Amino acid sequence: MAKLPGGSRTIKPLGEVYSREGLPQPKPLAPGEQRVLTRTGCADFVAQIHTQHVVPRRKTPRQGKQPNATLCGASPRQHND
User: Fold this and answer.
1) Looking at residue 73, what DSSP letter applies?
2) Which residues are within 8 A (CB) of 62 and not within 5 positions of it... i.e. 6 or more apart?
3) Which member of 7, 47, 71, 76 lies 3.0 to 4.6 Å from 57 by CB, making a disulfide possible if both were Cys?
């Protein structure tokens, strides 16, 4: 039975993924790490990967893998090669 209309999938928390792979649990973040995550806008993302959540299934197939340059609010870097 679908959890959301149209289908969904469950994203497992990072700790559960670590356990299934036989890895030790992630340690709590140090105060300096927390400050950096807050400053860079990544604190919400880090909190999200530590909780289980349900997301709707993608309606259309991917057209090509596009890098997410704005992950955690970061701006894309310019490379001059």
Assistant:
1) G
2) none
3) 7
